[in-house]
Amino acid sequence: MQYPEPIAKLIDSYMHLPGIGEKTATRLAFYTINLPQADVDQFAAALQAVKRNLKYCSICGNVTEDDPCQICRDQSRDQSKVIVVEDSKDVMSLERMNEYHGLYHVLHGVLSPMEGKGPDDLNITALVKRLQTHPTITEVIVATNATPEGEATAMYLSRLLKPAGIKITRLAHGLAVGSDIEYADEMTLYKAIEGRQEI
Ligand SMILES: [Zn+2]
Q1: What biological-process terms (Gene Ontology) are attached (predicted)?
Q2: Rounded to the nearest 5 degrees, what angle is found at the Cα of 137, between the Cα atoms of 134 and 140?
Q3: 113: how many CB neighbours lie within 10 A of its CB?
Q4: What stretches of 20-107 adopt beta strand conformation (E)?
Q5: 61 Cα: distance to centroid of ligand 1 (angstroms)
Q6: Which of 136, 187, 135, 192 is nearest to 169 (CA)?
Q7: How far is the CA of 169 from the centre of ligand 1 (A)?
């Protein structure tokens, strides 16, 4: 016996989400059937709004409702430093710390030969252009995660940007190897930035 088509389609949709296999997708689909109509409507509207109303900032690559984003538009921020992160979630984590008032650049991933991700697949060209057109930026702080891919990406950026006379630093390894910025607490992040070292 097969599931009725609407359920089969919903299971298929849930399976497109990261970390969700068929079993979990099936459980979520049946859970959805039992939700009040208003909750389902709200969920569907939120899904559509996130695609319709959000875009990537043309300067830094962060998700935003307006382009350029709020951070790039804010001239009161320190225009000399840029923290390079893997994704927008990391910007949120660092902003929550409330200690860093410079700029950001979101790569949308890291170099990963295993996944076939090279420099052209990341938001690197925009970073190079940004440094050329914004001479106020004198330091790039690479805050990719402490994974082999994150380290390789940091080294790549160092080799790429250093010849232009930009100071390249890396977060201190207060963060445990393999740990994500996303899950680090504010004090750990603060110490990692304070203790950053030139690479
Ligand atoms: Zn921006």
Answers
A1: DNA recombination; DNA repair
A2: 130
A3: 9
A4: 55-56, 63-64, 81-85, 103-106
A5: 6
A6: 192
A7: 21
Cα–Cα distance for residue pair 8/31, rounded to 1 Å = 14
Q: How many whole angstroms from 50 Cα to the centroid of ligand 1?
A: 17
Distance from residue 76's CA to the centre of ligand 1 (Å): 14
What are the chain's domains? 5-53 (1.10.8.420), 78-198 (3.40.1360.10)
CA of 91 to the centre of ligand 1 (A): 11
Question: Token digits for 93?
Answer: 């984590």
- In angstroms, the CA 198 to CA 188 distance is 19
List strand residue ranges (DSSP E) for the chain, in order.
55-56, 63-64, 81-85, 103-106, 139-142, 167-170, 197-198
DSSP collapsed to 3 states, 47-72: HHHHHHHCEECCCCCCEECCCCCHHH
How many beta carbons lie within 10 A of that of residue 111, not counting itself? 23
All residues with CB under 5 Å from ion ligand 1: 57, 59-60, 62, 68-69, 72
